[in-house]
Amino acid sequence: MSAVLEKIPVIEDYLVMSDEEIYQRIETAREELGSRIVILGHHYQRDDVIEHANLSGDSYQLSVMAARTDAEFIVFCGVHFMAESANILGKPNQRVILPDLGAGCSMADMANIEQVEDAWEQLADIGVIGEISKVAPMTYMNSTAAIKAFCGRNGGVVCTSSNAVPLFDKYLKEYDKMFFFPDQHLGRNTGLKFGIPLDKMALWNPHEELGGNTEEELHEARLILWKGHCSVHGRFKPWHVDQVRKETPGIQVLVHPECMYEVVEKSDLNGSTSFIIKTVENATAGSKWAIGTEVNLVNRLQKRFPDKEVRLLSPDLCMCATMYRIAPQNLAWALDNLLVGNVVNEIVVDEETKKWATVALERMISFTEQNQDKKN
Ligand code: 13P
Ligand code: SF4
């Protein structure tokens, strides 16, 4: 046993190890732990983490993978809300590890359960939610487990960027209105696909009375959008699209729907991280792509497809700093701890929250699977 493994491994020791040693430690631990662990990696993770993942995917695929695996430990290389969802969907004996607890999501932090409950009460007080008006709460996967549970308890659902369109279709048909948390951009971009005009979308600012709206505006709205956003995707501006088109005639612009509507409107295509990957995979050699999403994913596509021209939509580095906190050093440290029987950075959702969050997540998964079956 190596010097580090003679005692409980501490992260400080790992921060000074060479890249080769870290790589070797991760691979050795993976081999020793075998089927007891599964390492999941989101598409935004850096290459030196993704290379160790058993499975990589977008946030929807990773939640399904977490629900299906039998491994004792799910080591989640992603952000906090993804690890929470893995704990909610996983089996009771499974344990979920987030190699760096600082890997949060600034968008998910823009809505907390107290604010959401308060907003819901205000809407009920003015009769927007009531006997004659049915409002469906829908939350983006990028939200706390408590907000997912709130949706489960109130007849609502979770969505991701890969299934927002069919889920909006279903809930807009069944309800008078939808209240969408916390990403105003995904909500707005999806609402526009259903022909909801912008003046029928109210923006709810949790720091203002009635979210900063009049009673009339809220009664009139078909879609109420929580005022949250992704700071990474917020860096893509409409002028970036104009600029790349001017610089590179024939280039196609492909963006994530967390980008603001003015960017999505000017793009050729938009969709989840997996949709972005699939689109570039299927594109013809010589095609040119400007991509509006996280830089690690764009760089990986660039390397994988040297026969296609792939670039980031913006000249700035659009990096998700919290995803980037999961470094190989954290992964090696977490796995070496497992080797000595020590579970670090475990993510546990309390049972009551889990019960209702499961309802909202399972509604999403079963609907998405049925929808896929119909298409196949
Ligand atoms: P996907 O669901 O497309 O993987 O996106 C998750 C995310 O956090 C994008 O910022
Ligand atoms: Fe959250 Fe944005 Fe990072 Fe996605 S890219 S995890 S939405 S901060």
Short overview:
The protein is built from 16 helices and 13 strands. It has 376 residues and is α/β, with parallel strands linked by helices.
Give a quick set of tags describing it.
alpha/beta; binds iron/sulfur cluster; 5-stranded parallel sheet; globular; 4-stranded parallel sheet; 376 residues; binds 1,3-dihydroxyacetonephosphate
Written overview of the protein:
With 376 residues, this protein is of the alpha/beta class. The chain is 44% helix and 14% strand. The chain contains 16 helices and 13 strands. The chain has a 5-stranded parallel beta sheet, with helices on both faces. The protein has a 4-stranded parallel beta sheet with strand order 2-1-3-4, with helices on both faces. The protein has a 4-stranded parallel beta sheet with strand order 11-10-12-13, sandwiched between helices. Helix 2 (19-33) packs parallel to helix 15 (328-339), helix 4 packs parallel to helix 5 (80-89) and helix 5 packs across helix 16 (351-375). The relative contact order is 0.16. The mean pLDDT is 95. It binds 1,3-dihydroxyacetonephosphate and iron/sulfur cluster.
